[in-house]
Every structure is written in structure tokens, then in C-alpha cells.
Amino acid sequence: MESTSQQQQGGSKRRRVSDEGSTTLLRLYRLPVSNCCSGVLAALRYKGLAFEDCEPPGAHYSDSLQQWRPGYGTAQYKEIVRMGSVPAVVLKSPGVGSFVLSESATICEWLEDRHASPALLPPAGEPERRARLRFVIRHHDLYLSPATKALFKYCDPRSRAGGDVSLAAALSELGVRLRQLEELADEFGGGPRGDEVFEGRAFTLVDCCLPITLLLPRQLQTTLEDRQMELGCVRTEGRLGRWLATVIEHPVLAPIVAEWRTATDAWISRKRSGRDDAFEEGWWNVGRQPMGSVESIPIDGAENAELEVRSE
Ligand SMILES: N[C@@H](CCC(=O)N[C@@H](CS)C(=O)NCC(=O)O)C(=O)O
Fold this sequence. Notes:
The chain is built from 11 helices and 8 strands. By secondary structure, the chain is α+β, with helices and mostly antiparallel strands. The longest helix is centred in the middle third of the chain and has 23 residues, at 127-149. It is globular and about 55 Å long. 36% of the residues are buried. Glutathione is lined by residues 34-36, 72-73, 84-87, 103-104, 141.
């Protein structure tokens, strides 16, 4: 973003992509309950980029579901974002027009290409190191996240009535994917930063994109506790569990985790009620915090010196 200006204030880097009246505007469409949105949000905040923090337009009352629904998947939102999913970004530059992108991993990699510093991937000169991390994110997007989200419907007691064969299969699939991730996390062990960051060497896109998904099964546990939920939870004693417990305290992630917990707890209790009318207008904004301003984020360039030095 050529028009981006950088400010040094109190030792923190703050960069504006969007200023009132300025040339370039970055908008993020997201919802606080969405695990897929958290990675993009974390990457934007880590890089200190300001953006317009928006919900997808098109919220409505669904006659068929008999509940209020947020804007994703609607025709109105699809006019802006073809896939209809969140997260999505829109970059508006005069003379260039709108650039629209969805799919969280693609957005994160685009941010990395546009705003190389502070870096969230190893430099291009280390292709295998980059590829290993991107594999972890691909594993999350293709396998872990869908397996986790498959549990959502069982929060509603109406979905659990009449036998749990499909829930057992869903938990088993999630268990397989989690054990694969635990093995991957072990392979990354032994680096200079220990279990503080997934790679063991630097804070990367994996630290941005995975934590919320990994917190989800525990959050759902109250609902499904009598149903072998342990199978679908990260083991606290392993490297993956130690990393997860540490990384969610990172100043970039902590507010995102807090917002997500509030939103998700509220969503789960609605779902557990088994009542469609519990999903009243605006439920998807419970707990929502304005995240687009970067004023309060301590971005310490030295923190990721390992990536910064190498990318120069
Ligand atoms: N692989 C996608 C998944 C996005 C996704 O499934 N988002 C959900 C919310 S968590 C959504 O927008 N669902 C509604 C839809 O796709 O119509 C990504 O990482 O961006």
C-alpha cells in the first residue's frame, strides 16, 4: 500500500492504511464468533495496519430458520464478496478501484506480500521453512477447522435426539486431525523460542490462524461433556497444548481471544437452548469490540528479529 504512512509513537509502529480523506481504504468483513476471521484479524493487528472493521451486510430474519441471521451467505453480501464467506477484505484505491479477496489464508499471504515488515513468514530465500508453515495452515483450513465446525450442530439438543452415531464419527475425525497437528507441533520443537511460538523460532501466520480453532472444542465441552469430548480437545501436556496456553496471552491475540470467548459463549448458550427465537436480531454482534484501530497494540519489531534480520 504505497500511501501507507508509518508513525513512531512511544516505541510502537503504527501504520495507517485508511485515513479519512486519504487515498487508500482497507475494509475487513468479519464476525466475532468466526474462528476463520481471527487469523486475518491477528495478522492485521500484528502488522499494525488500521482498517474499517465491518460486519457483512445483509443481516435478515430467515422465515425458514425462524431466526435472525448475519449477512454472510446473502445475495447482498455476495454482490461485494463473490464467495459470501467471512473473512473478506476490500481494498479501495482511487484510480485502481476495488480489490476484493476472501479465504483467510489467501488474505494473510496477500498481507504478507504487501506489508513484509513486521514479517509473519520466513523470507523467500527459505522456501522449505515457509512451506512447512503454510502446510500447517493448509491442514487447518482443509481438515482441522471443518472437523471442528462439524460439532456445532450438536450443541442444539434437537440434533442429538435419536442417537449419536454421527457425533461419534465427527469426534473421531476431529481427534485424528488434532493428533496430526500435535505431531506437527512436536516436529517444530526445540527452537530458540521454545513453545512460545509454533515454529519455535519466530511468531508467524500459524500463531495468528490456529489458536481460536484450537480453543473451540474446550468451549463446546460443557455442551458435549458426556460425549467423549476429550477426544476433540488439545492435550494440555503436549507441545501443542503448551504453545496454545502461551500464545493466547500474546498482546495481539489476547483481545481477539477475549472478544471471541464472549461471542462464542453467548452463541453456545443460544444453541443449547434449542430455541430458534433465541437468535434475536443482532446476536452475532454480542461482545464485538472495535478492532480496526491499532493505537493500543504494542508492536515490538525486535520481538520477531529472527525473521526481520533475515528478510533484509
Ligand atoms: N476456508 C474459509 C472458510 C470461511 C468460512 O467458512 N467462513 C464461515 C464463517 S466461520 C462463513 O462465512 N460461512 C458462511 C458461508 O460460507 O456462506 C476461510 O478460511 O476463509
